[in-house]
Amino acid sequence: MNGSRAPLPRTLVVRLDSAGDVLLAGPAVRAAAAGSSYTALLCGPQGADAGRLLPGVDDVLVYDAPWVGLDPAPVTREATRQVIDTVAARGFDRALVLVSYHQSPLPTALLLKLAGVGWTAADSEDYPGGLLDLRHHRRPHRHEAAAALDLARACGFDLPPGDDGALRVTTPPDTSALTGHEPYVVVHPGAAVPARAWSPVRARRAVAALARAGHRVVVTGGPRERALTELVAGRHGLDLGGATDLRRLAGVLAGARAAVVGNTGPGHLAAAVGTPVACLFAPVVPAERWGPYGVRHVLLGDQRERCADSRARTCPLPGHPCLDGVGDAEVLAAVAELTDPAADRAGRRPDPESALPHPPTGRAPGTERGATV
């Protein structure tokens, strides 16, 4: 025996949802990359730009899966064959399919088997038959980012030394030409799901209150949100609606003292660049799974409102009470807490799992089909 080690695998990580979901997959991706010779990410169109920002990703493959998203793609033989051929051409040794607690990984696992991927793992409560080589059970009440990292560890991957497991992106650009050089707070009023955002009028009042309290406010939004950001910024904020792609938005957020944002992708992007988050969190999904991760934050919003855990996309209650009921005093107090210099000196990145039991050491991938951890 020559004592040489087996070559590192070529690994595919799958996360087919939105930009925020892909950002939450970042720690798991870095763990996979640390133990792989080549790491690609398969994601949907809404998550591709976020995937390109993740450290450790060698390539981003895009597939608009018909079982994912608010406006799913149609099921076609052409698209199915294309994704199978694309994955097959890269010769992956193993794959990790990352899904949320309410999703099934099995449609993806079937495509990966047809593409010839030799070993596939996922969290699954459904019986996988021959589709999964490692069927992993998610621990109760686990944050999405921590649950994804748990799966990576169960596959024999782990974070490299010195990696604290927080959300991260590659170094963002300097965007001071957009924002100016004076300190500022970001308000991001939009969200893909209306139930998770302030009403525009309520967001406008918050910007005015922050400005009166002495904060310089920068209002951000995508190209389709220009009318929203113009209204919300009014005469009190700097309107950057439509002025940033995701990478430049990362730069704007990295330069902010704090971000006021809903449970949406830019909130996770703020966490990934280490900016404290005042998170307007509608309880339609649980904050323990989707709240800001690995960064100082304050949750704003009534988590016991009647819509809790409903996964409603549009608020079912008159007046959107869980978020529009948040007063200006609460917003100002949250921003004051997050921008306090003494707290900032204590460190912008708390241990992401400081309040969570550390996951057990996972066993290395085996050959037992349908094995359970």
From TrEMBL:
The keyword Ion transport does not apply. It comes from the Bacteria. Residues 338-373 are annotated as: Disordered. Coiled coil: none annotated. One of its GO terms (molecular function) is ADP-heptose-lipopolysaccharide heptosyltransferase activity. One of its GO terms (cellular component) is cytosol. Keywords: Glycosyltransferase, Transferase. InterPro entries: Glyco_trans_9, LPS_LOS_Heptosyltrfase. Residues 342-352 have a biased composition (Basic and acidic residues). GO terms for biological process: lipopolysaccharide core region biosynthetic process. The keyword tRNA-binding does not apply. This is Glycosyltransferase family 9 protein. It comes from Streptomyces alfalfae.
